[in-house]
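Researcher: We're teaching a course module on how sequence relates to structure. For the next exercise, students receive a sequence and then see the predicted structure as C-alpha cells, so they can try to spot secondary structure elements on their own. Here is the exercise chain.
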Amino acid sequence: MKAVVTVVGKDRVGIIANVCTALAGFQVNVLDINQTVMQGYFTMMMVVEVSACNVPLAELVTKMDELGREMGLSIRVQREDIFEAMHRI
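Model: And here is the predicted structure for the students to work with:
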C-alpha cells in the first residue's frame, strides 16, 4: 500500500533528514520525493510504501503528526487512494 506524506513549514536545516529517518524507523520506504523552498517556506511531498510498516497506519499518522509539532512543521500522512480521491476535480 502507498501513502502520501506532505510536509510544510519554515525552512531550516535537517527537515528532510529528520522526516526520512523517522519514516525509515517505521520501515516505510520513500518511493518518490519532491521538495521546494519558496520565500523561506519549505514544502515537500513524498510517495511512500507502507506495506512493511511496523505499526498500524493510524499510529504512523499520529507519530508523524507529533514529529511535525516537535519540529514546528505540518506533517500529514494519507493513504494514496484517499489522497487521490480528495484531489480529483
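Model: If you want an answer key for the exercise: Strands lie at 2-10, 29-38, 41-49, 73-79. The chain has a mean pLDDT of 94.
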